[in-house]
Amino acid sequence: MLPRGRPRALGAAALLLLLLLLGFLLFGGDLGCERRKRGGRAGAPGCFPGPLMPRVPPDGRLRRAAALDGDPGAGPGDHNRSDCGPPPPRPSKCELLHVAIVCAGHNSSRDVITLVKSMLFYRKNPLHLHLVTDAVARNILEMLFHTWMVPAVRVSFYNADELKSQVSWIPNKHYSGLYGLMKLVLPSALPAELAHVIVLDTDVTFASDISELWALFAHFSDTQAIGLVENQSDWYLGNLWKNHRPWPALGRGFNTGVILLRLDRLRQAGWEQMWRLTARRELLTLPATSLADQDIFNAVIKEHPGLVQPLPCVWNVQLSDHTLAERCYSAASDLKVIHWNSPKKLQVKNKHVEFFRNFYLTFLEYDGNLLRRELFGCPSQPPPGAEQLQQALAQLDEEDPCFEFRQQQLTVHRVHVTFLPHEPPPPRPHDVTLVAQLSMDRLQMLEALCRHWPGPMSLALYLTDAEAQQFLRFIEASPVLAARQDVAYHVVYREGPLYPVNQLRNVALAQALTPYVFLSDIDFLPAYSLYDYLRASIEQLGLGSQRKAALVVPAFETLHYRFSFPHSKVELLALLDVGALYTFRYHEWPRGHAPTDYARWREAQAPYRVQWAADYEPYVVVPRDCPRYDPRFVGFGWNKVAHIVELDAQEYELLVLPEAFTIHLPHAPSLDISRFRSSPTYRDCLQALKDEFHQDLSRHHGAAALKYLPALQQPQSPARDG
Amino acid sequence: MLPRGRPRALGAAALLLLLLLLGFLLFGGDLGCERRKRGGRAGAPGCFPGPLMPRVPPDGRLRRAAALDGDPGAGPGDHNRSDCGPPPPRPSKCELLHVAIVCAGHNSSRDVITLVKSMLFYRKNPLHLHLVTDAVARNILEMLFHTWMVPAVRVSFYNADELKSQVSWIPNKHYSGLYGLMKLVLPSALPAELAHVIVLDTDVTFASDISELWALFAHFSDTQAIGLVENQSDWYLGNLWKNHRPWPALGRGFNTGVILLRLDRLRQAGWEQMWRLTARRELLTLPATSLADQDIFNAVIKEHPGLVQPLPCVWNVQLSDHTLAERCYSAASDLKVIHWNSPKKLQVKNKHVEFFRNFYLTFLEYDGNLLRRELFGCPSQPPPGAEQLQQALAQLDEEDPCFEFRQQQLTVHRVHVTFLPHEPPPPRPHDVTLVAQLSMDRLQMLEALCRHWPGPMSLALYLTDAEAQQFLRFIEASPVLAARQDVAYHVVYREGPLYPVNQLRNVALAQALTPYVFLSDIDFLPAYSLYDYLRASIEQLGLGSQRKAALVVPAFETLHYRFSFPHSKVELLALLDVGALYTFRYHEWPRGHAPTDYARWREAQAPYRVQWAADYEPYVVVPRDCPRYDPRFVGFGWNKVAHIVELDAQEYELLVLPEAFTIHLPHAPSLDISRFRSSPTYRDCLQALKDEFHQDLSRHHGAAALKYLPALQQPQSPARDG
């Protein structure tokens, strides 16, 4: 333990004597210390003596060069085996560590989650994340952390858009845009009482415990305020090409992907003024920043070298195209943080990129649910809702045959809304979003669906973390899908044995941004004209405003993979007549759609009202504020039926649209269905759910709920899917 | 660096002086050292002074008790933050570490892979695994490591069955059986030149770098030979129930799930005699060992306490039912090794089991391909074949439009044969194994397939590590599947974008153990009688011995999910006549099966010979030593066709069986097909593969290969699947 303010009572002579003695004892006749092995400058010390002899170089230049030339332990706090000194003091067991990240947009939000996963995997301390975000990232990350429920992680959000004006005057050519400059304003943006913070780019991956990095704060001298790793490229040396004129920097300069900031000292030192002055002065001769905040940090440090504490290279191994990082990682035994600081990211050319990519993929595909690990011995405020959840789960009886159902109902799934870039539809009064949910085995439906439905969609996908990456590649590989910015994909991460069909529907429904929604299923292709027709019908019927109604879209099915999709009701009726199409579930479960009254529909010229009947489960268009699906129905069975009961109980009219239709395509039974099809327990549990549903219905609707009682007491074929 | 044999030149007085000085310097006026926080005994030192002052207790008892009572750093080499001393010296960067594991049977082989994954994830040193295995585990693990190709990992196998006689005389009640005792004979079984080894149970999971554990060897005194963690239960204290009489042990005794063995010293000390004498003597009064080797280790240690070096509790956190481990892990900041030492394994009851289970699942589901990471700066002998592979991969042109095909062909997939318990079929001269391959989206076919084919099957499954676990649960949940020990499942781990269909078929084919194989596809259900009928036909026709032939099983298809499977040829023909069945691919690709001559088959009473024709791809029965599938055909298209060409080129007769049939069930197009269906590049690449195939054919068969040239030059519809 080396407390930061320890008295330096002993004189230099005593210290020297001691070190000599210690050296003799430790290394005896056999100098065990591993000297620098490659490319080192003669005389550069290979054994870092640790905090006992802080090596503050006169100008900061020599040491940084040494760090790059193969001495990974060159920084004062390094903890590699090639060091001979003691490791830096680690933060105490439950000390709270603060991390700040600037994050904007859909893609950076995905990146930041991978970074956070790697950090959480190795961390052993409580963390407080300070996220400076735009509205998009905030929407995504707020929901994500809320549903992730990781113990001992606190998250605060700061509005990046409010900070924009402080940096928008700086011309910047870096791909990160304005947000790339925002790290400069952290000392004023973060709470005044916050003194220490680790600042990270979204494109870094941890390979070690962040507390080891935090420990390096202890090595700051009384005036140092910024801990940085040297740049692992020759960028700031200049002359990379003709007229290459970088911003001023000490030697190779520093990389700002990983920063230790003493906010308190920066505030005291007048940081705001300092960087602004420097930036303004440099911008008199330089047209713009090339590397965003990094150029300005380096220019300030060039002027005030006493501010910087150089960090060991392993804390920011930079994988840019012409990286010199190999000098660092070949000598080190431990990489601590990997930084994908090329605009090409994982496609960067580097002979060891496979190694680093594997490392990155580890966390990209890592099941984030597994990070809901408590920190033993560190009491922490549980995440919101976690305590009630724990209590509810604790009350479940593992011997209950429906235990899996109960547990699944209580499961809080991590939700990543708008997983891919998405442009919300422009506000239009009668617009309608197609809402559906799917898992991996239905991805191949998406292209056809996009061809049939040119309007906005909100789709919930039930995926593992690894599948989410496959999904991403699938979209990128499809020109049809990649072109559609009006389709919002919301990833709900898998957990538990039963398919949480209604929870998925609710996520997709909650994220729909138009005033109306078409509640569909992923195996259906709507008529090509349906989107336009629905909007027109909504307007004509005054849906929502004048009339509380659900518009029914009649459902059909084909049993053949290859069939020619009808372009009109006339064509559809012709196919129906020759037996190429059927009304939906005609053979197995006609009750599900019988009330739609297909015979009447054939002839209908205008919308007509139908009455609810038992087991009715039509596909409907309703206002966005319609009742939610009942999340107790997990697995398969009764999930849509219950929703229609609720609509009817709330006195929605059911109006069948005469020109609307949607057609179900064949598919093999999903694994989730097969698993339970043959189980009598499954049927019993479903009946129990239905009973509880009816109790709740009675509570809300009183005697009116009696109407549904017989329907709820009917046994249902377990072979049907939801 | 503290080399093991460093001269101890300084006298005790000098040492003491130095320590005093050092202590003053380090802790100054502010004794930063964190004292033990809970439950500690008064006077027990909370600050471990490190190797400079080894704390060897007089009888070993006190310290072990302290370790359990909340001082995780009590062992001499611990490296927790609550320590104040320097960490133990780590092995040098590229030092080879040796690990021995006893492993027998299918289930332990799966366990050991999870253990190895956790070890590889954190390791930074080259490893040499010494695996003591039965024939089953050796078969699995040899193939696994051969195809895994992890750099800087060497594997040696030792025949457990040859060692059995050395321990089979010991009566043992532990669930691990005879293999549980085998750690006792490691000093003689392992190579004589091997001096240090870490011995692990298959049910441990690493949460840290194994080199930290290896480093603890440096703390052994000159006579210590066995490093162990104290038992975290009261078992050896006795009196857990009436007549509970455990074997003798020091205090709580030691757990042998993690052992540091100085093999050299044990051999010198006459270990073989020592443990046998002790065991024989104890067995005079005790009926059997209860905890296998652990009872004997403890009895020996009780007698020779000088042998044991107690290790810090974090190196073997024991999750048995009544574990006291919480005392260890609540105080520690770092868990190093988790030990699932309850027969219930992950189902053990423990209030923190979710934490530990999450940790275990991390490695269970971890993509093992990501562990093919090189150790930077440690030159090591590449795994067999790795160099050629690297060269071949390096020669590929990333700009080549068929790059993905080339890369996929070269990919060496990790293969885990007989993933689940499997009993080889008894040797029968005309027995036939159904051979097929599948991925996750066809699991639901397995139950039906088992009902249709009562004989042995060899199935290759293309899965991720996480999917392999889902698969395992799927089988366990199905009584039909769980009952079939004659179905061998071989997991081939996913890697790359294209489905390696023929590599999968070859894995399944190579693992078939009967003299004949039925080369089928997973979407087909054979006639109920086919297994018996094939065996009779093989015998009658003298297949293989008298006749070099491939028996053709005519293929049909249904377009409906629900259909009544025909019980005879007569029923089948009736369904065909009413259009409920078709000959296979009748609508899309009749050429594929036209040579089978369905018209003739209708009437046939005896097998008849047919001639090869372009694009023929029947399902056939052949001797097991038939030609392999051509692995160059990855993705979809031409994969079976090429195999039939090869059979014909090798002059196999094609004999159609008059009573045999198999029926294809409908399914949605797989994702792999959809991905490429629309790609013209895909077609071009397939043509390039076909051209290369023909060049090879000409090389092997000379002018006879000319016959196939026109067929190979025909464009093929890209929409067909393999």
UniProtKB/TrEMBL annotation, chains A, B:
InterPro entries: Glyco_trans_8 (IPR002495), Nucleotide-diphossugar_trans (IPR029044), Xyl/GlcA_transferase (IPR051292). Its main location: Golgi. Keywords: Glycoprotein, Glycosyltransferase, Golgi apparatus, Manganese, Membrane, Metal-binding, Multifunctional enzyme, Signal, Signal-anchor, Transferase, Transmembrane, Transmembrane helix. The keyword Transmembrane applies. One of its GO terms (molecular function) is manganese ion binding. It catalyses: 3-O-{(1->[3)-alpha-D-Xyl-(1->3)-beta-D-GlcA-(1->](n)-4)-beta-D-Xyl-(1->4)-Rib-ol-P-Rib-ol-P-3-beta-D-GalNAc-(1->3)-beta-D-GlcNAc-(1->4)-O-6-P-alpha-D-Man}-L-Thr-[protein] + UDP-alpha-D-glucuronate = 3-O-{beta-D-GlcA-(1->[3)-alpha-D-Xyl-(1->3)-beta-D-GlcA-(1->](n)-4)-beta-D-Xyl-(1->4)-Rib-ol-P-Rib-ol-P-3-beta-D-GalNAc-(1->3)-beta-D-GlcNAc-(1->4)-O-6-P-alpha-D-Man}-L-Thr-[protein] + UDP + H(+); 3-O-{beta-D-GlcA-(1->[3)-alpha-D-Xyl-(1->3)-beta-D-GlcA-(1->](n)-4)-beta-D-Xyl-(1->4)-Rib-ol-P-Rib-ol-P-3-beta-D-GalNAc-(1->3)-beta-D-GlcNAc-(1->4)-O-6-P-alpha-D-Man}-L-Thr-[protein] + UDP-alpha-D-xylose = 3-O-{(1->[3)-alpha-D-Xyl-(1->3)-beta-D-GlcA-(1->](n+1)-4)-beta-D-Xyl-(1->4)-Rib-ol-P-Rib-ol-P-3-beta-D-GalNAc-(1->3)-beta-D-GlcNAc-(1->4)-O-6-P-alpha-D-Man}-L-Thr-[protein] + UDP + H(+); 3-O-[beta-D-GlcA-(1->3)-beta-D-Xyl-(1->4)-Rib-ol-P-Rib-ol-P-3-beta-D-GalNAc-(1->3)-beta-D-GlcNAc-(1->4)-(O-6-P-alpha-D-Man)]-Thr-[protein] + UDP-alpha-D-xylose = 3-O-[alpha-D-Xyl-(1->3)-beta-D-GlcA-(1->4)-beta-D-Xyl-(1->4)-Rib-ol-P-Rib-ol-P-3-beta-D-GalNAc-(1->3)-beta-D-GlcNAc-(1->4)-(O-6-P-alpha-D-Man)]-Thr-[protein] + UDP + H(+). GO terms for biological process: protein O-linked glycosylation via mannose. Bifunctional glycosyltransferase with both alpha-1,3-xylosyltransferase and beta-1,3-glucuronyltransferase activities involved in the maturation of alpha-dystroglycan (DAG1) by glycosylation leading to DAG1 binding to laminin G-like domain-containing extracellular proteins with high affinity and in a phosphorylated-O-mannosyl trisaccharide dependent manner. Elongates the glucuronyl-beta-1,4-xylose-beta disaccharide primer structure by adding repeating units [-3-Xylose-alpha-1,3-GlcA-beta-1-] to produce a heteropolysaccharide. Supports the maturation of DAG1 more effectively than LARGE1. This is LARGE xylosyl- and glucuronyltransferase 2.
